[in-house]
Amino acid sequence: MVRLTCDPATRAYAQRRRAEGKTTREIIRCLKRYIAREVYRHLTNPQPIADRTELRAARTAAGLSLRQAADALSTIPSRLSEIERDIRRNGDLEARYRTWLGLTAA
């Protein structure tokens, strides 16, 4: 239900199914199947986890505090700390952080 309201790709999928004459109930059933296939692919073919330990090392080697890095990236220090410790994932912020630190994107 969240994907139907928030995800543009899912909304476009629902519109295509409506154009095919599917009811809302049938569309939700199709979405459940689609999500089940997506989850199965992730479970059977896990992606390698990127090593984020170099982020903190690079920041401290440059003599930068979390506050300085967060201010430069327009975020809060705890977000960067969570990324550095691999507690939370945020691909966009991590990529910007790596670029800002001068590291290559993972």
Features:
single chain, 106 residues, mainly alpha, 2 domains, 7 helices, elongated
In short:
The protein is an all-alpha fold.
Task: Explain what you see.
The chain has 2 domains: 2-44; 53-101, no CATH class. Helix content is 70%, strand content 0%. The chain has helices at residues 2-6, 8-19, 24-44, 53-61, 66-73, 77-84, 91-101. The protein is elongated. The two termini are 32 Å apart.
Total helical elements: 7
Distance between the termini: 32 Å
Number of strands: 0
What structural category arises from helix and sheet content?
mainly alpha
Q: What does the radius of gyration come to?
A: 20 Å
Outline the low-pLDDT stretches.
none
What fraction of the residues are assigned to beta strands by DSSP? under 5%
Shape: elongated
Q: What percent of residues adopt helix (DSSP H or I)?
A: 55-70%
Total discrete domains? 2
The H-and-E topology, N to C, reads as HHHHHHH
Instruction: Give the rounded overall mean pLDDT.
Output: 89
What can be said about the biggest beta sheet?
none
List the helices and strands and how they pair.
Elements: H1 2-6, H2 8-19, H3 24-44, H4 53-61, H5 66-73, H6 77-84, H7 91-101
